[in-house]
Design a protein that fits this description.
- It contains 24 helices and 10 strands.
- With 723 residues, it is an alpha+beta fold.
- The strands form 3 sheets. A 6-stranded antiparallel beta sheet has the order 1-4-5-6-2-3. The chain has a two-stranded antiparallel sheet with strand order 7-8. The chain has a two-stranded antiparallel sheet with strand order 9-10.
- β4 and β5 form a beta hairpin.
- α3 runs antiparallel to α19, α13 runs parallel beside α20 and α13 packs antiparallel against α21.
Length: 723
């Protein structure tokens, strides 16, 4: 009878255990779906914002460095609460914190989009009457009165007639909205990743995280596509007659409907926040899926474990362990070197990601819509595929920490060598009279507003501040019809044509056309080949580099103790944001501003947005910064590999010592020891985090009470792990 009752009891316990396992797996799958949605919406919103930066420059009359400041506001908001959320959030209800963060992000995106409705209609420089009858013709160059007075106001010589536009500081609302979005994003990444890693099996954790990162990269794909679509729509669509708009999407003054993307993003973020309010605080960890009788034998589960659901946990008790935990992380050599190297990589990545679309516009003469479309369709899918395949490779070959670090180093270096080929894929400056070529057609960059004037337009009294470009049949662009010396025009709006342009006739043989049309001249045909080469190299290098992202991330995850994962990820994110996300867009923007040849001028004076860049210097500055910062980061990555090799040799010596001495030290919790030994068998963790021979220990780990150990036979642990 006793044997029968024991058997029945055992079967009941196993049945309950199987039910718990099935429920945990089902909840974990739903959690992965919810996290995937919120990661997707988060990255989509961020990309919509970045794809609109050239639109924001022109709409709010900002320089690239000011736009970089707006971009950095997201990181500023993130840093305000990142450390606290990462440390305290692991002991609180993580799913609800993620849901609340998503709501804040939705509010921030909504605030950014609504700033459009607080402004008046968009106006741009134009000397062309929008409603002129097509059959009429009048004088263009010989009517300088309006131009001269406008010139004086813009130059600041007459402030009486100048009234500050009430919408001139509306960019502050964009700044605040982006900051609020950064605050909301704080709990999403560190708590989401650590939650999955805590409750997934060790051998599946890398695959799950790779899936999340891959899906998160689908967000930028759709974000760029949305940005491309809205960039082709005029900013005041529905409020103006498009026949009166004299500019096209290729014009440096064009502003697309950037605000539509932010409103769509706000709605998606709100929807993605809803599922997290229904998830439990924690799931049953895979290593505790055993009969209750087994659990009763080991009641001394760590009180500070992330799986601990005791609601009586005091914030003050949690706070006491913050500084020791921080010291432990910073004293881990591999983690510290990875932080330094990855921070530099993050700087170059942020600079490239923020201004790549603008670089394509200025270097290759593409519209903002086309640049965003190509990045979204070609580059980002390659990155997502690379990240996913990197996780698959790591799972397939069960890479150790050292192997993962070496793999990440090799593929990153190959991608770096490919990136250097971009220096050869660039276009020459577009010929613009008075800026990149002289009025007689001699190429060369010219500086100063006096270079815009020549003998052919000396009688026109033109303003050097207007930017209303016209193109001649010879392929030379003139800054305005007045500076081209045009005497007559016909048509109206975008159909206006200028005739009898003295500067055109002065630089070309007699009998050639002296007519110019609206807009800049197109780039030379050879530039199309350079653009194709640039995109091909970008896609290939992005794919190869992304293969090492998941292995590199798992090196960070496995070089630290499990209880410090949330803090480590939060600290890493905080450093990335503080030393990369905030300064990188600003100093990249400042360097880009230094290559500007023609600035717009605000109504009340002062510099506005850049209209034309020196393409040669832009390429050197932009690609030079990216390659220089990335190159320095490899020294830290190589140092990580060297340190890991030394630790591997030390571990081999420690294992030989364990064979000679039957006692080895492990963590107090045998259940956790089983999980760690499982990770050891799969090459996912290092021995110093698990065992130590008498007299050998890590100086940093000595400071943490979490590393107190007991002694058991290693053979006993192995036998228990195999059960």
């Amino acid at each position: 009878m006793e044997d029968s009752s024991k058997k029945t009891s055992s079967q009941q316990v196993l049945s309950v255990s199987d039910g718990n396992t099935s429920g945990r797996r089902s909840t974990l799958k739903m959690l992965m779906g919810a996290l995937s949605l919120v990661y997707f919406c988060n990255t989509l919103t961020g990309t919509c914002m970045k794809s609109s930066f050239t639109q924001l420059e022109r709409r709010f009359h900002l320089s690239s460095s000011h736009v970089g400041l707006i971009d950095g506001s997201f990181e500023m908001g993130n840093l305000l609460f990142l450390a606290a959320v990462s440390h305290f959030g692991a002991k609180m209800h993580r799913p609800r914190l993620i849901g609340g963060g998503s709501l804040l992000m939705a509010a921030g995106a909504l605030c950014t989009g609504l700033s459009h409705f607080m402004m008046g209609p968009y106006t741009y420089d134009s000397v062309i009457p929008a409603s002129q009858n097509a059959s009429m013709s009048s004088v263009a160059c010989a009517g300088p009165e309006k131009d001269v007075s406008d010139w004086n106001v813009r130059a600041g010589n007459s402030t009486a007639a100048c009234q500050k536009e009430p919408a001139s500081n509306m960019w502050i609302y964009v700044f605040l909205g982006n900051t609020l979005r950064g605050i909301g994003e704080t709990p999403v990444t560190p708590l989401g990743m650590s939650y999955v890693d805590d409750f997934a099996k060790a051998e599946n954790s890398a695959f799950y995280i790779a899936c999340l990162q891959t899906i998160a990269l689908l967000g930028p794909v759709f974000g760029y596509l949305l940005g491309s679509y809205f960039a082709n729509i005029y900013v005041d669509i529905g409020y103006v007659d498009m026949e009166r708009v004299t500019i096209s999407p290729n014009d440096a003054r064009w502003v697309g409907a950037w605000w539509m993307g932010m409103l769509v993003s706000a709605g998606l973020l709100f929807i993605s926040s809803l599922p997290f309010w229904f998830f439990p605080r924690s799931l049953a960890s895979p290593e505790v899926e055993e009969p209750k009788s087994t659990m009763e034998e080991t009641p001394d589960v760590r009180a500070d474990s992330p799986n601990n659901n005791n609601p009586a946990t005091k914030l003050t008790e949690i706070a006491k362990g913050f500084l020791p935990s921080l010291k432990h992380l910073l004293c881990t050599p591999v983690y510290f070197l990875l932080i330094c190297g990855n921070t530099l990589k993050f700087n170059s990545l942020i600079g490239m990601h923020t201004f790549n679309a603008k670089y394509i516009e200025q270097q290759f003469g593409q519209s903002a819509s086309r640049a965003n479309f190509l990045i979204g369709v070609l580059t980002l899918p390659a990155v997502a595929t690379g990240i996913f395949l990197g996780g698959v490779v790591m799972k397939r070959y069960k890479m150790s920490v050292l192997s993962a670090a070496q793999f990440s180093l090799v593929v990153s270096f190959l991608a770096y060598l490919l990136m250097l080929l971009k220096f050869g894929a660039r276009c020459a400056n577009t010929p613009v009279a008075g800026l990149t070529t002289s009025y007689n057609g001699t190429p060369g960059v010219l500086y100063g507003s006096h270079a815009l004037f020549s003998e052919c337009n000396s009688n026109c009294s033109c303003s050097p501040h207007h930017w209303d470009p016209v193109c001649s049949d010879s392929g030379i662009t003139y800054v305005s019809p007045c500076l081209a010396g045009c005497l007559r025009y016909s048509g109206y709006g975008k159909h206006t044509v200028f005739h009898n342009c003295t500067c055109v006739s002065a630089s070309h043989p007699a009998g050639s056309s002296t007519t110019v049309k609206l807009g800049q001249c197109h780039r030379a045909e050879s530039c199309s080949g350079s653009f194709s080469s640039y995109m091909a190299v970008s896609v290939l290098s992005a794919f190869i580099s992304s293969l090492g992202i998941t292995p590199g991330f798992m090196v960070v995850m496995r070089c630290i103790s499990p209880e410090f994962k949330s803090l480590a990820l939060g600290l890493q994110t905080m450093i990335f944001r503080g030393l990369g996300g905030i300064p990188a867009p600003i100093y990249f923007g400042a360097f880009i501003d230094s290559t500007c040849l023609k600035w717009s001028v605000k109504k009340c004076g002062g510099r506005g947005a850049c209209r034309l860049y020196d393409a040669n210097m832009y390429s050197v500055v932009f690609l030079g910064l990216v390659s220089a910062i990335s190159g320095v980061s490899f020294f830290f990555t190589m140092a990580v590999v060297i340190v890991l090799r030394k630790e591997l040799r030390r571990e081999e010596g420690a294992l030989r010592g364990i064979e000679l001495h039957p006692q080895a030290s492990v963590m107090e919790n045998p259940l956790s020891a089983k999980k760690v030994l499982g990770e050891l068998d799969h090459g996912l963790t290092s021995v110093p985090n698990i065992v130590r021979v008498d007299g050998e220990h890590n100086a940093c780990q000595e400071e943490s009470s979490a590393n107190k150990t007991t002694f058991v036979k290693i053979s006993h642990l192995r036998s228990n792990h195999s059960d």
